[in-house]
Design brief:
The structure is a single chain. By secondary structure, the chain is α+β, with helices and mostly antiparallel strands. The protein folds into 4 domains: 2-62, Orthogonal Bundle (Arc Repressor Mutant, subunit A); 75-125, no CATH class; 137-220, SH3 type barrels (Roll), CATH 2.30.30; 228-305, Alpha-Beta Plaits. Helices cover 42% and strands 22% of the residues. It is built from 11 helices and 12 strands. The longest helix has 17 residues, at 289-305. InterPro entries: CBASS_pafABC_assoc_protein, DeoR_HTH, HTH_11, WCX_dom, WH-like_DNA-bd_sf, WH_DNA-bd_sf, WYL_dom. Pfam families: HTH_11, WCX, WYL.
Length: 309
């Protein structure tokens, strides 16, 4: 009986992977014959698991049921889900914090001690910024579906100055900066790529018509989730700068053996100024103009703050 139960759990785990399984492949994975596989599949169905037959290949897949069946996660998947729930509990999606905490509590009750230690370790070194602008779940889902289905999307958008305007876009990708959600989209009225904060966006339903996705310029993807995108010329070798910044923080491009172009994004001009200034290398700001003006004013204030000798 114990061997049969263990085999059923393994069969359920295999069927939860995103693929169709032939009876022969399942038999090989389980170390049994095709007839035993058919009996085990029928047992899962009797237990309420919606195992669908796949026509043409004499195979099986786990279908969608009326209720969510237990999920069998490996160690890495369990840690990933726990960390994701902790991040969701931080509140970047409105109303989801309590649900995330409840789900996390249930998961941590059944996590082996070795995995609980890994989750707590990741929690200790990860910082979730506070003061996030929360997005309504229905807005997030509507935009995600439009991106997935390649359907044009109209929405009312509140600008930085509080004014509102109707925008018509081809939605491309969602970006989460841990503090805000952004949409990268082709603005049909302006014939250019734009980024929109989801907490300022009210979708107009229904969406459509469908469109053929454009190729988004990669530099825009790297920093599109931010209000400001800056370009710096840093007087240091590219490998040195890349090692200081890390691969996911900025786009680092060598100009020559001693000079590097750095592209970075932020919602704060002060953050951008400190970002490169603290690297310890001479640099020039190439764009945007408002950052150049801001740093010039900041330099004057800092100079006045230092007492004369």
């Amino acid at each position: 009986m114990l061997e049969t139960s263990a085999r059923l759990l393994k069969l359920l785990s295999l069927l939860q992977s995103p693929r169709d399984w032939s009876g022969t492949a399942l038999a090989a994975e389980l170390g049994v014959g095709p007839r035993t596989v058919r009996r085990d599949v029928e047992k899962l169905r009797n237990l309420g698991y919606p195992v669908d037959a796949v026509p043409g290949v004499a195979g099986y897949r786990l279908g969608a049921g009326a209720s969510l069946p237990p999920l069998l996660l490996d160690d890495e998947e369990a840690v990933a889900v726990a960390v994701g729930l902790r991040q969701a509990a931080g509140g970047t999606v409105a109303g989801i914090e309590e649900s995330s905490v409840r789900a996390l509590t249930k998961l941590e009750q059944v996590l082996p001690s070795r995995l609980r230690h890994r989750v707590k370790l990741l929690q200790g070194v990860a910082v979730t910024p506070s003061g996030a602008a929360a997005v309504q779940p229905d807005v997030l889902l509507a935009v995600a579906e439009a991106c997935r289905d390649h359907q044009r999307m109209r929405f009312d958008y509140r600008n930085h100055d509080g004014t509102e305007a109707r925008r018509t876009t081809e939605p491309h990708r969602l970006v989460n900066t841990s503090r805000r959600w952004y949409l990268i989209a082709w603005d049909l009225d302006r014939a250019d790529w734009r980024t929109f904060r989801l907490d300022r966006l009210a979708p107009v339903i229904p969406t459509g018509p469908r469109f053929t996705p454009r190729e988004v310029p990669e530099p825009k993807t790297a920093s599109a989730g931010y209000r400001y995108q800056a370009v710096f010329r840093v007087h240091a070798p590219a490998e040195v700068v890349a090692d200081q910044l890390g691969p996911n923080v900025a786009i680092v491009t060598p100009i020559d053996s001693t000079t590097t172009a750095v592209e970075a994004g932020s919602n704060s001009l002060d953050e951008l100024a400190l970002y490169v200034g603290l690297l310890g290398h001479p640099f020039e700001i190439q764009s945007p103009p408002e950052l150049i003006t801001h740093v010039r004013d900041l330099a004057q204030r800092l100079t006045l703050a230092v007492p004369s000798s």
